[in-house]
Amino acid sequence: MTNLETSLKExxxxxxxxxxxxxxxxxxxxxxxxxGGSKDxxxxxxxxxxxxxxxxxxxxxxxxxxxxxIEDILITLNSQYHLIRLLKGRGGNGLFLYLVLxxxxxxxxxxxHQLRRIESELEV
Amino acid sequence: MTAGTPAWATHATTSAxxxxxxxxxxxxxxxxxxxxxxxxxxxxxxxxxxFAPDLATLLTRSGAxxxxxxxxxxxxxxxxxxxxxxxxxxxxxTAGALEVCHLGALFDAAYFVLAHDTRxxxxxxxxxxxxxxxxxxxxxxxxxxSRRRRAxxxxxxxxxxxxxAPLVRVADAGSGxxxxxxxxxxxxxxxxxxAADIAAALACRTYHTLVELRRLAADGLVTAAQPAPARxxxxxxxxxxxxxxxxxxxxLRDALEAL
Lengths: 124, 259
Known about the structure:
The structure holds two protein chains of two kinds.
Chain A (H helix, E strand, L loop, with lengths): L3 H11 L3 E8 L4 E7 L6 H22 L7 E5 L3 E7 L8 E8 L5 H15 L2
Antiparallel strand pairs in A: 1-2, 1-5, 3-4, 4-5
Helix pairs in contact in A: 1-3
Chain B lengths: L13 H11 L3 E5 L2 E6 L2 E6 L6 H7 L5 H11 L5 H7 L5 H21 L6 E4 L11 E2 H18 L4 H4 L2 E3 L10 H8 L7 H8 L3 H13 L3 E3 L21 H13 L1
Antiparallel strand pairs in B: 1-2, 1-4, 2-3, 3-5, 6-7
Helix pairs in contact in B: 3-4, 5-6, 8-10, 9-10
């Protein structure tokens, strides 16, 4: 039985290089669940901040007249990947999974694939 | 605290009363003007408001759970406050999806209860919601999030009437080329439906719908229907909607069925 916590745990345990995960409501910026993170990496702050990233992209798409949906957003840092994956289910409208990966250990294509599977457990 | 007056009743706002109940580790249901917040050992386990579609609406209208399946789960588990668990155990919905949906409904309803932060009406100690505990959230998180949502909505368009009144399209306003979701929302504005009706029709969370509606209002496309609901002068025939204590009604029904 997969609940929110176990889904986030699965993100960290089954995805190579994953160090933190959060499920975030990007309309309000609230994190519904977080796992991982540390005192140097406040996931609540990351959740709220990345909400702005998602909103900015959505707004840009509106201005461009693009009627597509965002599947995921990848941010590449020197030593980390930050992967933002928007949930698609109707009940999951307005939510994204946020995953922090150690770029030295992560397999990005595999991470995306696994995230899709975990995501399906959370979608209505 | 004076003898006979419980601590929650000495507070002038619902949020302060919730804080006092949380500090006591209370279990029960606090009714405010616009809805009910359920606590279990001082944490919020559920919230309901007539201004936001409930979990049943979100789950059945989105097609996640068939209406028959929902009512079966209510019949089987309602009496024992295990409806949520039953939905998951019977494989109708995954635990994660139910939690996400439940949190959505909880924060949506709490926004309405706390946006109208007046003196609470009553507290029923020991009252438990028929859904059962799906997930619990600290009171301060719920209060903080509700305030943040109110501020975000204010920033988009400072008319709280949009949240509760029937909505009308502004005549002559061209709808232009709207983003998908906003266009879908605007299509449901018909002079009769309120934000809650539109959210229910879209099987979409109320807060997201409120964001779209306030944006439409800011763009001059939508406005609250005039005259405002007969709150100021309830005349004959004017229905003043008093939010029904749905939990109580359901408990009554459960009790009657158990006879």
